[in-house]
Amino acid sequence: MCGIAGVFHYLQEDAPDRSLVERMTRVIAHRGPDDEGVVMLGPCGIGNRRLSIIDLTTGHMPMANEDDSVWITFNGEIYNYRELREPLVAKGHRFRTRSDTEVILHHYLEHGPDGCREWNGMFGVAIFDVRARRLFLARDHFGVKPLYYYDDGRRLLFGSELKAILEDPSVPRELDREALDAFLTLRFLPSPYTLLAGIRKVPPGHYLLVDKTGVTVHPYFTDVPVLDHALSEEQIIEEYLPLLARAVKRQMVSDVPVGLMLSGGVDSAALAYYMMKAGEGRIRTFSVGFRGSGDWNELDHAAQTASWAGTDHHPLLIEKDEYTDFFPKSFWYLEEPISEPTISAYYHVCRLAAGQVKVVLMGQGADEPLAGYDRYFGERYHRAVASILAATPLKALIERVPRLEKMKMSVRSLAEPDTVERFVKIMTVFQPDWQRALRKDSADGQHDVRRAAREIVSGLQKRVADLPSLAQLLYIDARTMLADNLLLFGDKIAMANSLEVRVPYLDLDLVRFIESVPPEFKIRGLSRKYFHRKALARILPREFVNRKKRGFATPMDRWFRRELQGEVRKVLLHPQAAVADVFRQDTIARLLDMHVAGRENFRKQIYLLLSYEFWAQRFLKGRSVTFADYH
Asked: Is the whole model's pTM more than 0.85, yes or no?
């Protein structure tokens, strides 16, 4: 696990400034405090910050092949690197280290850019071929690792984090208005968008080739799931459990101890079971919750799981002040205004874990392929629900009931016959009328605020249009919301603490199997993740499997209506607030009034606006601010 950065003058004869590459590398030092390296290769300079996990003594990067003609800087882990290495040795490739980095360098030399399809892991990688003057950049299949780039038409800058690119003062800090549309719709930035014009993310499952002809983007992971309708429930379970066990064992490969982020849910409990079965000694587990009872505190369930699994357990209780203190600071690490209330709590538990281990496993990635969210019920049964909505005044009645924002979003989407439009409505946070009321640049009501989000969803939906609609939605969610929201903040916040987080539920072989399972085995009746739970009932206590899903929640709704409402108003309605540059503060005031009065539940919308405010202060205005600066 590391951080990478570099500059390639693909249409310039001069060499990059070494001091720039060094600054780009050092600004992401938190990603790799154990080692650093920079090499200048004519028109290209590449750097690396290393967090040593595998091959602790000889894995220094950047790393070259035998004759120093091809160099690599790498961030991530390839879990099947030992299997990939054997045939390379048989073909005459010579290795100087035991690292996965050297394996994928030689695998690239043997198989070319498309060979990254076979890399089962998480990665952001750059490989420069000195003789061909060609740069290869790739991001892993599901986007577990981030990778940014900026192309000015003559040179390309890249980095694991956006701030590395901004070390070059000539890179503009301008708001991308089209990306802002997507953010207000989805509450995250789908690849390739960022909110800074010109800076892009390599999409999950894609690679870039850069040479004298320019920059080209290539998808390499376009596999369309083939549903196996011949499978019985028993066959699914019999195949699923060994694949999950193998994924966990694979992702425990490490030359340092591996811990576990333990929630009170069934997914992390299964990881604890298989880690225990792998026999690597007593596992250290880490959990976080907020004071008080409710869906935001599952420390009791986590403790029960830890006791059952016999782990060395470390719980953490977060106070409101700790949460609000880190919230404004978080965007320096996030670099995108990701609107997820769990981020501050996640930072504190990562800091706790990083004090004891360098690597943890986490249950992230189970809900999207396996259908773990409430909204998937609607898509599973949308034809029946849509007919009820069309035949009754139910939709109009629900729109008039206070604080039913989640249900309102559901009925708006379920009444939509067009598949792509329905999927976008399922994800929408700010409805189009609210977006237009908010934006200062909305000159009329004709601007299609959902266009950017719709194009991203449509591009993915076309691949899987022949599948049942629930299978389509799961496929899209795993490659958008999961990649550029949950996994992105998971990586950024963990690496802010120099902690590597691995996600076994996104093992390539495991996901390929899960996506082949027909939807009726994922949602049955009112049961989500049906076959997953049935399978885990064979290895876990039944009370664990039957626990209500809580997610990783916070008491944010209550705080916005009570304890924090004054602070929120001071921030969002301040004359010097960054939101005032692009949004109408009278509309924001109306939204806050409706939430506090209990007329609507605008928790997500308020959190989104706060996230934008603190992000914009840091990355557009160059100021680091706290709540106190708005008094």
From this structure: yes
Q: Who's near 446: CB < 8 A, 6+ residues apart? A: none
**Predicted local confidence at residue 547, as pLDDT:** 80
Task: List C-alpha distances in Å: 155 to 53, 146, 202, 206, 468.
Answer: 32, 20, 16, 20, 44
Q: What is the DSSP letter of 61?
A: S
Q: What stretch of H or E contains 78? A: strand 70-78
* Beta-carbon-side half-sphere exposure of residue 490 (alpha carbons within 13 Å): 23
Q: What DSSP string runs through 292-315?
A: SSSTT--HHHHHHHHHHHT-EEEE
What distances in angstroms separate CA 595 from CA 434, 510, 562, 574, 582, one per listed residue? 14, 42, 11, 19, 22
- Say if CB 184 and CB 438 are below 8 A apart: yes
* Distance from the Cα of residue 58 to its chain's centroid: 30
| Pairing mode, strands 70-78 and 63-64 | antiparallel
Q: Which residues pair with 38 in a beta bridge?
A: 47
CATH superfamily entry for domain 2-219: Aminohydrolase, N-terminal nucleophile (Ntn) domain (3.60.20.10)
Give the contacts of 177 (CB within 8 A, at least 6 positions apart): 441
Q: What is the DSSP string of 522-573?
A: T-BTTBSSHHHHHHHTTTS-HHHHTSPP--S--SHHHHHHTTTHHHHHHHHT
* 329/493 Cα distance (integer angstroms): 11
List pLDDT tens digits, range 60-79: 889 999 999 999 999 999 99
Q: In what order do the strands lie in the sheet with 148-151?
A: 35-41, 44-50, 2-8, 156-159, 148-151, 199-201
Q: Which residues of the chain have pLDDT under 70?
A: 1, 52-59, 280, 292-297, 381-415, 443-446, 549-557
Q: Which residues contact 52 (CB under 8 A, 6 or more apart)?
A: 34, 35, 59, 255, 256, 358
Contacts of 497 (CB under 8 A, 6+ apart): 30, 347, 350, 351, 353, 354
| pLDDT at res. 401 | 56
How many residues appear in the chain? 631
| Domain definitions of the chain by residue range | 2-219, 233-370+480-544, 375-478, 556-630
Give the number of other CB atoms < 10 A from CB of residue 465: 13
The architecture CATH gives domain 233-370+480-544 = 3-Layer(aba) Sandwich (3.40)
